[in-house]
Amino acid sequence: MSKKQFGWKDFTLAYGGRISEGVTGFETSKKKEKKFLYGRGSDPHEILSGNNSYEGKIKLWQSEVERMIADAPDNDILKLRFNVTEALVPEDGGQTVINIYEDVEITEYSKSFNQGDTNQIIELPIMYLRQKLQQ
Questions:
Q1: Is residue 1 included in any domain, yes or no?
Q2: Which residues share a beta bridge with 49?
């Protein structure tokens, strides 16, 4: 039996208590520091693990980013801290998946606009402190 595959149409993203209509992409990553333990000989004896880190990207319409700037302390989007809730809700009534990313901060803000563009999409790199998957 195959598991449900979610499509973009099943995806909802909310931040700061508001559902984003202008999200066009969302990416998250959890990394764990890992190193080899060396001793006698030239082959490793074990894999040691250290700290976790969390990062990702949110792609938003320019108008959504302007809202975030207005909500940010001193209108500085890099000072904004918020939680992100990702919901995957299939139209067929199957299992819903909720993921929560806590204490998200934007690490960089840049934008570009080119002749012929009909709208502006801004990619915001993020880092966050915790993730709670399948809530």
A1: no
A2: 34
Cα separation, 97 vs 59, whole angstroms = 21
Residue 110 is predicted with a pLDDT of 95
Which amino acid is residue 68, in one-letter code?
M
Q: What is the mean pLDDT of residues 80-92?
A: 91
Specify the number of domains making up the chain: 1
Give the C-alpha separation, 43 to 22, whole Å: 50
Number of alpha helices (DSSP H) and beta strands (DSSP E) in the chain: 1, 8
Burial class from Cβ neighbours inside 10 Å (0-12, 13-18, 19+) for residue 38 reads exposed
Specify the CATH number for the domain of residue 59: 2.30.110.20
What pLDDT, on a 0 to 100 scale, did the predictor assign at position 32? 98
Nearest residue to 100 (alpha-carbon basis) of 84, 118, 78: 84
Q: Containing domain of residue 70, as a range?
A: 8-132
